[in-house]
Amino acid sequence: MIYYWYSIIKILILRNFQSEVNYDQTIKRTFRVGPFDCDGLRVMTAAKYPVYMDFIRWELIARSKLYKAIVKRKLAPSLGSQKIIYRKPLKIWSKFDVILESAGMDDKWVYYVHYFEQENEVKAIGIARTLVWKRDTPTALTDIMKEVGATEKIDPPLWVLNIFKEDKEIIENANKKNYSQQRV
Predict the structure, then answer these.
(1) DSSP readout, 57-104?
(2) pTM surpassing 0.85?
(3) 53 and 6 in contact (C-beta within 8 Å)?
(4) Among 36, 41, 63, 168, which lies 20 to 30 A Cα-Cα from 145?
């Protein structure tokens, strides 16, 4: 967790020395698989992919007008759901790129696709939908997006929407089973 917060603070400091990007601009960052990213087989563990996805989304927020619209208002950019498709492993000490691409938005969610590339080959893809919270309540995403210059809504591709289609029902069904009160 220390490395996570160190990286977020570094992103927030470096924003002062980097060029501004647009809220829907595709951005890319190169990372290296370190020993603490790996499992016993010396490949990046599945748990680390979401961390790198967070880093690149934070970089987009920090370097765009989203920073002022979200963070300085004391709002919380939050992850609503994400799906990751793993294709090939990333090996220890190897460099890889994370490419963040905006996939569109609706009234509540902003959708992103994260590509994990190495040597011009996609090794994994992470698809995420995010929203903005204040005091446990989703805020008006439309207002925030207008403030950063989003003049028109860009509908996410159908394949992205379909990935998250049944998320709400899955959670509701799990709540009906009441796992928290069942004994192991």
Answers:
(1) HHHHHHHSTHHHHHGGGT-EEEEEEEEEEE-SPPBTT-EEEEEEEEEE
(2) yes
(3) no
(4) 168
Residues 6+ apart with CB under 8 A from 10: none
C-alpha to C-alpha distance for 147 and 141, rounded to whole angstroms: 10
Q: What is the CB neighbour count within 10 angstroms for residue 36?
A: 8
Residues whose CB falls within 8 Å of the CB of residue 142, separated by 6 or more in sequence, listed in order: 107
Q: How far is Cα 13 from Cα 17, in angstroms, rounded to an integer? A: 8
Return the exposure string of 99-116: e unless at least 16 CB atoms fall within 10 Å of the residue's CB, then b.
bbebbbbeeebbbbbbbb
pLDDT digits (tens, 9 = 90+) for 103-141: 999 888 999 999 999 999 999 999 999 988 777 667 767
What backbone phi and psi angles, to 5 degrees, belong to 85? -115, 115
Note whether 126 and 116 are within 8 A (CB): yes
How far is Cα of residue 59 from the mean position of the Cα atoms in its chain?
Answer: 10
Say how far apart CA 5 and CA 129 lie, in whole Å: 22
- Stretch (H or E) spanning 2: helix 2-14
CA 13, CA 81: separation in Å to the nearest integer? Answer: 27
| Residues 169, 129, 70: CA angle, nearest 5 degrees | 125
Q: How far apart are CA 150 and CA 9, in angstroms?
A: 27
